[in-house]
Amino acid sequence: MVTLQQIAFHAGCSLATVSRVLKGEGPVSDEMVRRVRRAAAELGYRPSPATGRATNRSQPVVGVLVPSVTNPVFAASLGGIQHRLQAANHGVLIAQSNYDPALEARAVRSLLEQRPTGLILTLCDAKTSEALSAALPPTVLLNNRPVARFAAAVTVDNYRAGFDLTRHILDHGHRRILVVSGHFRSSDRARLRYDGYLAAMQEAGARPMEAVEIPFVDGYENLDLATVLAQHRPTAIIASNDLLALGVIAALRREGLSVPDDVSVAGFDGIALGRLMTPTLTTISMPDGDMGLAAAALLLDMAENASGCRHLNLDCRLYAGGTVRHLA
């Protein structure tokens, strides 16, 4: 049986440092974390039942934090994560933040109590999240850009996606384009998509509009756009995700407006519901399942092989559905 003393000798560090790395507690440099985990992997170390509260389980686990388990986007990512981890004989522990930055640190602490092999985190904003202030095991950010301390991430270019979708609508003759979004403080992805919209509008010489921000949770079904429509009179609306785009379409119909004859609508994500409706939803399709697979594979490589952190940026693509029309 491999001991912590053997790992310390192999890594060229103290026993206390090995303990801090394997428990994910206390200050340790990134280089030392890699050395200790590489030594543990090379020696074939596996935690004993006495090393943590939850180590009496039959298999190691990975902790995953997402904003919502019911959103099809994160459900697809979770499916990819679980598929890859099951192949590696790892279980999955899931927590959700409900798009609330204040809940993230608490959710991560709950996951850490189970002594996971590592963490996969989708945060409201990785730059400001308190969840990243703790001593964490190997961690991969999913849907968030990497930050200085956590350089491992799997993303798409949300800024470019916002730019390309806006450019598509501009090419259809629209100039009065409104963005309806979940609160930017709850999603840096939504903020990046809006930034891409601003850049495309500026490039086209069109005047951008201030985004209408609503809650991500319980904000879609009863969306009221009457005041916004009267004030801005948009010919097209971009929603920050597809579920919100469906809420926008329903709100427009309650106002007696047709999509796309009266107002064009587009979203982001490429969920199946958008392809089942008539007309089909114009959207930017995201590789959510593949992103989950990639995040899980990257985390396992870091945790078990002590590989370096990487930033993987996957491609997304425009799906030109029928909810955006050419203006005469």
Describe the structure.
This protein has 11 helices and 12 strands. It is α/β, with parallel strands linked by helices and 328 residues long. Among the domains are: 46 residues, Orthogonal Bundle (434 Repressor (Amino-terminal Domain)), CATH 1.10.260; 129 residues, Response regulator (Rossmann fold), CATH 3.40.50. The strands form 2 sheets. A 6-stranded parallel beta sheet has the order 2-1-3-4-5-11, with helices on both faces. Helix 3 crosses helix 11. The chain is elongated and about 75 Å long. About 2% of the residues have low confidence. InterPro entries: HTH_LacI (IPR000843), LacI/GalR-like_sensor (IPR046335), Lambda_DNA-bd_dom_sf (IPR010982), Peripla_BP_I (IPR028082).
